[in-house]
Specification:
This protein is an alpha/beta fold and about 475 residues long. It has a domain of about 220 residues: Rossmann fold (3-Layer(aba) Sandwich), CATH 3.40.50. The strands form 4 sheets. The chain has a 6-stranded mixed β-sheet with strand order 3-4-14-9-10-13, with helices on both faces. The chain has a 5-stranded parallel β-sheet with strand order 8-5-6-7-15, with helices on both faces. A two-stranded antiparallel ribbon has the order 1-2. It is globular. It binds pyridoxal-5'-phosphate. Pyridoxal-5'-phosphate binds next to α11.
Length: about 475
């Protein structure tokens, strides 16, 4: 399996090279040169497999010869063994025709664990084969950082530095990152915003000598391996509800568009997905795009669903490339104009194609709290703010006769303030985290200064490699 860049000017690579590279050199994102496709009979043959086995079979279509199937199967078994539910990504029926797929049973209580637990192991495997070491730097507003730390802790070939904005993540989110005590992890609390953290990470990647010296790599959802690892849960629920012999639909709480893109990929591989509802909070650029082809960035506004507080959804570029019939030059031009002017000029034909499958949806904080309360009172079900938006979106845009699956992306205990405001009670943390508030925190504080933070990362790497 070979990978090409959406902007057409980076070398073709295999899976392991794409895993280590993250972003392509031309600024584009890697996508498979040819999409694997399964026949209806091949999909049927995957029904009823344990989750790790299903994941191994599907992800192997994307690794190709870069990773042997037996190895990948072992990595998948290890990745999903630590989940708190035997089904890994179980379905709960909310009402007639509407299911909720819970993606929050991993170690850090958000859906990012499904990809990150496998990614950490893929990195370790690939680095061991090359006898190499990498440094991962990540900026986080909460969930990505803890999922990455949990996936990389104690791995000697990986040093991981996570930058979070000091005082701007929830206490649960911060403690999930800072209470991990491992020599290869550095938590840096930056005196600034999430955007400052992200700018610092970009500046480190642009600092070519530092990038080469540290062998920098990325684990955000621009990394293709994360998308590949998210396809199996779409397949698991679709197959359970009758696919490929009847269509299904999904509703997806969306930020960087990585989750929805995995759904799009599952459909491209032949799974009959009739609709993908793209659910947003008040940061509704994607809803505006789908309603009126208005893809214009506005300032990010904080909300009760912070993992969706994003204006520029980086994975949208992969969909755009497909909507433009894989015209890399057109993709590069549109993306460059978007960077420069804050507005993405999507050709009308491409927009129409997007609308034929994707349905936008937006919910503000007041309505989100009302939806959490409705689910708690009516169904005795606790949905976190992100998941509640997805469930509301699913109810707003059903397709007659088509099972609708709303993805639940975080555990309610991760957002205690919002849950208390909506229901009057704080959901308990799962037992593995019961003493989270008593654990010792490990982090350093830094000004948003590139030199200072690079020095800190260099010290981490020297400690870890020595
Ligand atoms: C990351 C995240 C999202 C957004 O997912 P994308 O792939 O960035 O669209 C939604 N909900 C939760 C809880 C998340 O952690």
């Amino acid at each position: 399996m070979r990978y090409i860049s959406t902007r057409g000017r980076a070398p073709e690579r295999d899976f392991n090279e794409v895993l280590l590279a993250g972003l392509a050199e031309d600024g584009g994102l890697y996508v498979p040169r040819n999409w694997p496709e399964l026949s209806a009979a091949e999909w049927r043959a995957l029904r009823g497999l344990p989750y790790a086995e299903l994941a191994a079979r599907l992800v192997h279509l994307f690794t190709g010869e870069a990773i042997g199937f037996e190895t990948l199967r072992t990595l998948c078994q290890e990745a999903y063994a630590g989940f708190r539910h035997p089904a890994v990504a179980p379905l709960w029926q909310a009402e007639s025709g509407l299911w909720v797929q819970e993606l929050f049973h991993g170690p850090t209580l958000a859906f990012k664990d499904l990809a990150m637990q496998l990614l950490g192991r893929l990195f370790e495997h690939t680095l061991a084969a090359r006898d190499a070491h990498i440094t991962i730097v990540a900026a986080t507003s909460g969930d990505t950082g803890s999922a990455a730390i949990e996936a990389c802790r104690g791995r000697t070939r990986i040093s991981l530095a996570v930058l979070h904005p000091d005082g701007r993540t929830s206490a649960v989110q911060r403690r999930q990152m800072t209470t991990v005590d491992a020599p290869n992890i550095a938590n840096i609390a930056v005196d600034g915003t999430f955007d400052d953290c992200q700018d610092l990470v970009k500046a480190m990647f642009a600092d070519t000598p530092f990038r080469a010296e540290m062998r920098l790599s990325a684990v955000n959802s621009i990394n293709w391996a994360r998308i590949a690892a998210q396809i199996p849960y779409y397949a698991a629920s679709a197959l359970a509800l009758g696919a490929p012999d009847r269509p299904v639909a999904f509703s997806v709480p969306t930020g960087n568009f990585g989750n929805v893109l995995a759904g799009w990929a599952a459909r491209r591989m032949g799974l009959p997905i009739a609709r993908l509802v793209v659910a947003s909070n008040r940061n509704d650029i994607l809803a505006r795009f789908l309603a009126a082809n208005d893809m214009s960035a506005r300032p990010v506004e904080p909300s009760l669903s912070p993992s969706m507080d994003i204006q520029i959804s980086s994975n949208f570029e992969r969909l755009l490339f497909e909507l433009l019939d894989r015209d890399a030059d057109a993709t590069a031009t549109i993306m460059a104009d978007f960077r420069a002017g804050g507005r993405m000029a999507v050709p009308d034909a491409a927009w129409q194609r997007a609308r034929a499958l994707l349905q936008g949806f937006r919910l503000d904080d007041t309505a989100t709290l009302a939806e959490i309360r409705r689910l708690a009172l009516g169904s005795n079900y606790l949905a976190d703010p992100h998941s509640a938006i997805g469930i509301a979106a699913a109810r707003a845009h059903p397709l007659p006769g088509v099972p609708m699956i709303a993805l639940a992306t975080a555990h309610p205990a991760k957002f205690p303030e919002a849950m208390q405001a909506a229901t009057g009670a704080i959901p308990p943390l799962p037992s593995a985290l019961f003493d989270l508030y008593e654990r010792v925190e490990h982090f350093t504080r830094a000004r948003p200064d590139l030199g200072e933070i690079e020095a800190e990362i260099r010290a981490l790497v020297h400690r870890n490699v020595a």
